[in-house]
Amino acid sequence: IDSVMREWKTFNIISALLLSAILTILQIDSAATDALTRYTALASLVCALTSLLYGCIYIVRFGTMK
């Protein structure tokens, strides 16, 4: 279970970095006005938030099984 916990923590770090990068992309004017870029970034934002949420839930839930 320790290797899975480390993997989920790594995925959470990656998701957090992706969230900041996606938010930075959405702050660029030319990227925010382009519909394809905006909707792709918003879909990626939802996926990264979901990944972070599930990772936190799994870490809390299975952290007690050590």
Please provide a written account of the structure.
The protein has helices at residues 2-27, 29-33, 35-62. It is an all-alpha fold. The chain has one domain (2-65). Helix 1 runs antiparallel to helix 3 (35-62). It is elongated, with a radius of gyration of 15 Å. It starts with a helix and ends with a helix.
Q: What oligomeric assembly is this protein in? A: single chain
Helical proportion, percent range = over 70%
Number of helices: 3
Question: Domains counted in the coordinates: how many?
Answer: 1
**How many strands, which pairing sense, and closed or not: the largest β-sheet?**
none
Shape: elongated
Tell me the number of strands.
0
Secondary-structure element pattern, one letter each: HHH
Classification by helices and strands: mainly alpha
- pLDDT < 50 runs, ≥5 residues: none
- Sheet-strand content, in percent, reads under 5%
Query: Could you tell me the mean pLDDT?
Result: 93
What value does the Rg take, in angstroms? Answer: 15 Å
Termini gap:
7 Å
Keywords: Membrane, Transmembrane, Transmembrane helix
Transmembrane segments: 41-60
